[in-house]
Write a structure and sequence with these properties.
With 642 residues, the chain is mainly alpha-helical. 75% of the residues lie in helices and 6% in strands. It contains 24 helices and five strands. Strand 1, helix 23 and strand 2 form a beta-alpha-beta unit. Helix 5 runs antiparallel to helix 6 and helix 7 packs antiparallel against helix 8. The radius of gyration is 32 Å and the shape is flat. The two termini are 35 Å apart.
């Protein structure tokens, strides 16, 4: 089951967690001594920020005081600060539409006064509102606009939270591998900053991401570190978030007693702080725990409480999960009509949130964003190159002619040598590639020929023999014992014909030639699942058209070899095949939940199967990446450029 956990602290881009180091007494003194002016507005805002992680009601009260005074003074900065901070309270209370409205107003205020930093903050807060509301494509778009704004201003301190937020949006669309890339990038930037509150946010988010990737031990480590940091700074929000994550992780690691302790602790803190979002997460964690503990009535109770919160606050992404679970509870109570109604709600909502179109939009949006980032890097490098060239030319102008000739001569010789070495290396690679191409092409041609000969030649011969024997059977009177032997021989002949057809199909599947890669692999995976030895699921995206026939054959052989390796060595019960075709990039992923192995052993001893896979990947000028650890399954990724 996927764990949804939005970055509940993204809005704190506006506060920069100043409350950690705030002198509360000094703020109170300012409130008591200040006149009804802009200084008092700022003091109210700072005092509200201090209360955000302790008492949401108190925080909201001081933000509203700042709003009222800002309106009387027509103080634009105060109006902006109220909106960008108060939306954090609204989001935690599940009032997402109100939060989005205020964030849009804050963006207009920032543009009006041309405050570039506040423009970046408003863009990030609008993205956060869209994330809470399940509009993930819009969320990613605004987060990327915010990241561009702060990057232009050279304010790198805002980037970790933005990367975490982008990662969370991809996580909601089931793009977990893409999510963990952004979150690890955020952690790498955040650790040297010394911002404990931000670090607690990022650690618990990465724990969530690894949980969704089913890498529970890594998930547990990040949640434990996040809980330690959160307890040190006494942040109820992230203590609750870490407890919810540890409850889920311990449950799947079969530590049910520890899971219950963390889940009940997180639920108690969430309810005391009035944080409905984290209360919902803790209820879901305890819901699954009760189910695993053999307490279906308790599980149904938690499910209903969580569903009431999600429906009351229009938490779309959570409703998808809860509709399905509540339908199961109703079916268990023999309320089949109610179960059917909730399953229909689940189906409609799930298609709207996690459909292929949404994933495709997010992938395209991320590709465009990365392209823009690379173009910016290229411009920067070009400027640096021009600066270096100017300096070099200035130095060269001061050198005497003899030294200049010597340097140019040396560089010319070195360049020629390097070019020669590169040409030799390229020729060797081309020679090896030609040899590999010839071998693979010869193998496939021979497979096709043998499959045709088996099917048309030997198959026809065996079928003819069967027809002849069947005709003889009806015209010859045999003793009972001989008749049984004759019948057994006919049965064995049927088995031989079936086995011959199976071998011919395996050597060159008819579906691959006639219908293409996706249909052929679907038949192959279904055949393995039908055997009962391994449950294989397959997903594909972007294959509206067919690939080149030679590429399809090679990709089919790669997947066939990888799944055969899983059957032989992995001791797995489940495997997943994913194929993606975006623009001219094709990727194939084969994952299993088997016993795994130490990848370092491949450097010493790579089996014939993996050597065949590597050869076929090289044939397509692709890359092969194998990720595995003992006891944690194996993931193999193949990427090619058409």
């Amino acid at each position: 089951m996927k764990l949804f956990l939005i970055t509940v602290f993204s809005v704190l881009l506006n506060t920069l967690v100043a409350a950690q180091n705030t002198d509360v007494n000094a703020i109170l003194k300012r409130i008591q001594t200040s006149k009804q002016d802009t200084n008092l507005v700022l003091a109210y805002i700072e005092y509200g920020q201090y209360f955000e992680n302790h008492n949401l009601d108190s925080a909201g009260k001081y933000y509203l005081k700042a709003k009222a005074l800002s309106e009387r003074l027509d103080y634009e900065i105060g109006k902006f600060k109220f909106r960008s901070n108060y939306t954090y309270i609204l989001n935690l209370q599940g009032k997402f539409e109100e939060g989005l409205k205020l964030n849009r107003e804050s963006l207009e205020i920032a543009k009006k006064i041309n405050h570039k930093v506040n423009i970046g903050k408003s863009l990030a807060n609008i993205a956060t509102s869209h994330t809470y509301m399940g509009n993930f494509t819009e969320a990613v778009k605004y987060y990327q606009l915010s990241a561009d704004q702060f990057d232009k201003l050279g304010m790198k301190e805002f980037l970790p939270r933005l990367y975490i937020s982008i990662g969370s949006a991809f996580e909601h669309a089931n793009l977990f591998n893409k999510s963990v890339v952004y979150k690890q990038k955020a952690l790498q930037l955040a650790r040297p900053m010394g911002d404990s509150l931000q670090l607690a946010d990022i650690l618990t988010n990465i724990g969530t991401c690894y949980f969704n990737l089913k890498r529970y031990k890594e998930s547990h480590a990040y949640f434990i570190e996040g809980l330690a940091v959160s307890e040190k700074i006494q942040s109820d929000v992230f203590i609750t978030q870490a407890c919810a994550g540890l409850c889920r992780t311990h449950r799947l690691l079969k530590n049910l007693a520890e899971a219950r302790v963390y889940g009940e602790r997180g639920l108690d803190i969430a309810r005391r702080s009035g944080n409905v979002f984290l209360e919902l997460e803790c209820l879901k964690a305890l819901m699954f725990l009760a189910e695993d503990s053999g307490k279906p009535e308790l599980s149904a109770k938690y499910t209903k409480e969580a569903l009431d919160i999600a429906e009351a606050n229009n938490m779309t992404d959570n409703l998808v999960e809860l509709y399905e679970d509540y339908a199961t509870d109703l079916a268990r109570q023999n309320n089949y009509k109610g179960a059917y109604d909730y399953l229909m709600k689940y189906s409609i909502l799930n298609d709207s949130i996690q459909g292929v179109d949404i994933q495709k939009q997010l992938q395209e949006l991320d590709t465009k964003y990365l392209t823009v980032q690379k173009e910016k890097q290229i411009v920067t490098l070009e400027k640096e190159k021009q600066t270096r060239n100017t300096l070099i030319y200035s130095l060269i102008a001061g050198l005497i002619g003899l030294i200049l000739i010597a340097i140019l001569g040396y560089r010319n010789i070195t360049f020629r040598k390097r070019v020669a070495e590169q040409e030799v290396q390229q020729l060797q690679q081309e020679k090896q590639l030609v040899a590999t191409n010839s071998i693979l092409k010869g193998q496939e041609e021979e497979r096709t020929r043998v499959a045709r000969d088996l099917h048309d030649g030997l198959g026809g011969l065996l079928s003819g023999i069967k027809l002849t024997l069947n005709s003889v059977k009806g015209n010859v009177i045999l003793p009972e014992e001989s008749a049984m032997t004759f019948t057994r021989a006919l049965t064995q002949l049927d088995g031989a014909i079936s086995e011959m057809r199976r071998v011919a199909h395996s050597m060159m599947p008819e579906a691959l030639v006639r219908f293409g890669l996706i249909d052929a692999l679907s038949d192959f995976c279904e055949g393995i699942s039908t055997s009962g030895r391994l449950k294989v699921t397959m997903q594909h995206f972007g294959f509206e058209n067919r690939l080149d026939s030679q590429v399809e054959v090679v990709l089919y052989r790669i997947v066939q070899e990888l799944l055969n390796n899983v059957l032989k060595y992995a001791d797995a019960t489940e495997a997943q095949v994913q194929l993606t075709w975006v623009d001219n990039h094709v990727s194939v992923t084969v994952e299993d939940n088997g016993k795994g192995f130490d990848v370092k052993t491949l450097e010493v001893n790579k089996g014939a199967g993996l050597r065949n896979v590597q050869a076929r990947v090289d044939y397509l000028n692709g890359t092969l990446d194998i990720q595995s650890k003992p006891g944690e399954g194996t993931s193999v990724l193949v990427e090619i450029v058409l």
